[in-house]
Input
Amino acid sequence: MPNDETKEFLASLPELEEGKTYKFKCYPGISCFNACCSDLNLILTPYDILRLRRALSQGSVEFLRLHTTMHKCEDTGFPEFHLRMNDNKARSCPFVTPEGCSLYENRPGACRMYPLGRATRPDGKGGVCEQFFIVQEDHCRGFEEKDEWTGMSWKEDQGFEAYTSSNDRYMNILARIKQRGAPVPEKMGHMATLAFYKLDEFQRFITHMRVFSRFDVDEARQKAILEDEEAALEFAMDWIELMLFESTPNLKAKG
Ligand code: SF4
Ligand code: SF4
Output
């Protein structure tokens, strides 16, 4: 999820234009294996955290305490969670093992896209335009391999598609707040932490505060939201959007 610093970094890299290809392959046994899994400044999106937590069977409070550091984003007032690296000389990722990523099937979106960076901007029609940039680091030998990729084929091969809609929607919310030119009030920042990053607590909050009594949500969706964190995250986006922007396509307050 590019923040402003990341966007600046991406803009300094060569762009992989639409239809253009690059050569790359990463596999266990390559001489630089695991060299890229340390000393990272890796921002986790709400969907990244959902997938990592689910793979680790950890509650949100435990996961955030053990594996993240939190910063408040000055221009939005929203929290930003970074993956906490190990406190060793290499600052290695807590999930890297000699065999590779121990959470490979649920690795964060940025790890999937590497060695590409992906940036998005609103397309003015409710969707986003995406751009890809090549992050070619000196230690990475994958560029000496023969497999050829476009940005889109790499994204598909790495299973990024499942991350796209949630991450893009989240980025769109941040972009709309930035357009307004003022961060959200502190209370809203706390709500965003609960709804986006503590989905298990958000589900309990919905029941405890009888949130559904104030919105038109049919029974099947209510059940899904309380049982499935992906449905809960979608509802969280609707709920926060409605509070911030007073309308959202998939959620209406009861009249
Ligand atoms: S989450 Fe996995 S792929 Fe990402 S940096 Fe850590 S070990 Fe590497
Ligand atoms: S440095 Fe490049 S080739 Fe080596 S493990 Fe990382 S992504 Fe793969």
In short: The mean pLDDT is 94. The beta strands are 15-16, 22-23, 43-44, 68-72, 79-83, 96-97, 100-101, 116-122, 128-134, 148-149. Residues 4-172 form one domain. The pocket of iron/sulfur cluster (ligand 2) is lined by residues 26, 30, 32-36, 114-115, 139-142 (CB under 6 Å).
